[in-house]
Specification:
This protein has 319 residues and is of the alpha/beta class. The protein has two domains: 141 residues, 3-Layer(aba) Sandwich (Rossmann fold), CATH 3.40.50.1370; 154 residues, Aspartate/ornithine carbamoyltransferase (Rossmann fold), CATH 3.40.50.1370. The chain is built from 13 helices and nine strands. The protein has a five-stranded parallel β-sheet. A four-stranded parallel β-sheet has the order 2-1-3-4, sandwiched between helices. Helix 8 links the parallel strand 6 and strand 7. It is globular, with a radius of gyration of 19 Å. Bound molecules: phosphoric acid mono(formamide)ester (CP) and norvaline. Norvaline (NVA) binds next to helix 7.
Amino acid sequence: MAQPMAQSMGQRHFLDLADLSAATLRGLLDAAHARKAARAGLPTAMPDPDQPLNGHMLGMVFDKPSTRTRLSFDLAMRQLGGQTMLLNQADTQLGRGETIEDTARVMARFCDIVMLRTGPHENLTAYAAASDVPVINGLTASGHPCQILADLMTFEEHKGALEGRRIAWFGDGNNVAVSLAQAAALLGFELALAVPDAFMLPDDVLAWAADKPGKITRCESPQDAARGAAALVTDCWVSMSDDPETAEKRAAAFGAYQVTQELMALGDGAIFMHCLPAYRGKEVTAEVIDGPKSVVFDEAENRCHAQKTILTYCLGLDA
Ligand code: CP
Ligand code: NVA
């Protein structure tokens, strides 16, 4: 049967920050700040005054665990005037072999927009190619763009303009690091990488970033990366898509990259950022993540504000 590819490709998906122009990313960030400010002081379950997604349904498919992504998309839709339906992949027919493409076509009959969290990025792109409604990347092994929109917003709240600033990343060159590198490249800030060679970000990501306004710097040591940084950022050493059997090897490789008070002191009044969930005593000391420069719970809250602008953008209603 002819697949409605043209229509599907005409959808405004949100799959990867590298798909966006710098102006679009900037517009999403500005809209997120404005939307957060516009509902300041309102009780959590009170909708935003404009309710732009009144009557709209978001479908969420989780093939991996989630706390923040699930809560923040659900609340974002409610505050925008819409509703959500949730599928845990293991409980669906996807879990027993129904194709991604058929699932995407079925969901489009029930939902105006879909958020998918899965492992292989190819699952997401296959889903989006078959979908007659916009698809949002709620995390794959290759990227976590929703997280980075919230993190950029959080940085700006605490440290001001991003352009020309230095942000340092420690440990694994994982999905979150990839999305942060894409944002740096587009928005013109420096991402200083303290990442062991064996866990470096993929070559194609670094090559894509090379001729963009931002700068990706590979540093010799964690201390080199931290020097002059406005934010120190890290993530867990074993991601959901990694083989748990590699945990010991990863701990050995990343031990020297733990974010400590000593590293924080090398920054320029640096804040500490982490997408959560965090493992105290591994990628970060308790002293840092529970200390006065940590903004991790602001990052979590901002997931909701940032995702509202992604939802309205994908539906052509904003930004
Ligand atoms: N940071 C993040 O995406 O958290 P969850 O895995 O809990 O959704
Ligand atoms: N890198 C982590 C992020 C969790 C939100 C993972 O993929 O598990």
